[in-house]
């Protein structure tokens, strides 16, 4: 549990400002209903006798694009890859009280497993899941607790930075220079993605200099202003690469470089691979690499642990770590295929 407690403290401290994986882009989906075309409304009779494994998922927010896609992944995979599972998806609406209500509803519906993208303050409802004898799975984010026992399905945040460093190291010139446009200071993603990049680039390209690192706070306008400042301070010829930590930051950096005719001349390491922009940026050489935290991989990791427990009697694991995927111009069009 010590590792969980460390992760939980880091993640939850920043979650109210910006969800760990969520990009902050708004979706038009109504917040009090399940995702459109997903068939995720709660069954009228949960004891349907259809023999399926009943899995409930409480999302942090349908209103956030990345979180919405995660919810859709939980539903669509039951149709395409896990027909043994029946999913019920509910919306936490970025509100701990609302999420508690969704979790209580899932308990009342006698789910076999309950997965949660937990918001700070939802811990009492998570304890109620355990008290009901239902296996608890925390997806993407984790709670702060000394007593809760759960399966974590998540990612090593530092790996994002390491993968970006490995790809940029291939193209940065000798004695190259980079700037880092970071997430909100103090966030788990900002701390560990920055650490991962700094450690890896120092290991494999000690000649590379990090000129500056500043928070863009996942805001497009702030990222644009940051890029403008760097160009004034270091000059267009003085910056070889920019490392970004969110999709909205990437958008701001790309727009600024585009305005100065510098796309393809300054290498951009992106994250989140938002669609369709992520693919278009790679194909147009506006970004060089994009590292993606795959919501489908999170849902598969959850379902694989459940199926192993159901079919083979394997104990529910303490952790299921998902590897980020790397996207470049060469494989960009394969996304979603």
How is this structure best described in words?
- By secondary structure, this protein is an alpha/beta fold.
- The protein has ten helices and twelve strands.
- It has helices at residues 2-15, 65-80, 96-108, 123-131, 157-169, 188-204, 220-234, 247-259, 277-283, 295-312; strands spanning 53-59, 85-91, 113-116, 136-139, 151-155, 177-182, 209-215, 241-244, 267-271, 289-292, 319-322, 325-327.
- The strands form two sheets. A six-stranded parallel beta sheet has the order 2-1-3-4-5-11, sandwiched between helices. Strands 7-6-8-9-10-12 form a six-stranded mixed beta sheet, sandwiched between helices.
- Helix 2 (65-80) packs across helix 10, helix 3 runs parallel beside helix 4 and helix 7 (220-234) packs across helix 8.
- The longest helix is centred in the last third of the chain and has 18 residues, at 295-312.
Largest sheet, spatial ordering of strands: 2-1-3-4-5-11
Give the integer mean of the pLDDT values: 85
Low-pLDDT sequence parts:
1-21, 23-48
**Given the structure, what is the number of helices?**
10
Give me the count of strands.
12
* Main sheet overview: 6 strands, parallel
């Amino acid at each position: 549990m010590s590792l969980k407690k460390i992760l939980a403290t880091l993640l939850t401290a920043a979650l109210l400002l910006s969800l760990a994986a969520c990009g902050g882009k708004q979706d038009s989906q109504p917040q009090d209903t399940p995702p459109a075309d997903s068939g995720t409304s709660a069954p009228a009779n949960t004891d349907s006798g259809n023999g399926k494994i009943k899995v409930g998922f409480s999302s942090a927010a349908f209103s956030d694009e990345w979180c919405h896609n995660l919810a859709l992944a939980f539903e669509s995979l039951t149709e395409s890859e896990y027909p043994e599972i029946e999913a019920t998806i509910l919306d936490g609406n970025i509100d701990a009280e609302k999420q508690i209500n969704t979790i209580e509803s899932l308990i009342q519906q006698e789910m076999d497993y309950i997965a949660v993208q937990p918001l700070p303050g939802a811990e009492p409802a998570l304890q109620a899941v355990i008290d009901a004898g239902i296996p608890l799975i925390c997806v993407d984010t984790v709670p702060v607790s000394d007593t809760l026992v759960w399966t974590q399905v998540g990612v090593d945040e530092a790996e994002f930075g390491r993968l970006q460093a490995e790809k940029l190291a291939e193209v940065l010139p000798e004695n190259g220079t980079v700037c880092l446009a970071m997430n909100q200071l103090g966030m788990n993603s900002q701390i560990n993605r920055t650490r991962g990049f700094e450690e890896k680039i120092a290991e494999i390209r000690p000649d590379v200099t990090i000129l500056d690192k500043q928070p863009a706070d996942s805001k497009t306008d702030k990222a644009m202003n940051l890029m403008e400042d760097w160009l004034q301070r270091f000059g267009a010829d003085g910056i070889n690469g920019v490392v970004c930590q969110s999709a909205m930051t990437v958008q701001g950096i790309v727009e600024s470089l585009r305005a100065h005719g510098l796309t393809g001349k300054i290498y951009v390491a992106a994250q989140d691979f938002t669609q369709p922009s992520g693919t278009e940026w790679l194909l147009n050489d506006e970004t060089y690499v994009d590292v993606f935290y795959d919501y489908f991989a999170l849902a598969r990791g959850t379902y694989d642990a459940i199926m192993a427990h159901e079919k083979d009697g394997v104990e529910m694991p303490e952790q299921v770590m998902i590897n980020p995927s790397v996207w470049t111009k060469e494989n960009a069009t394969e996304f979603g295929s």
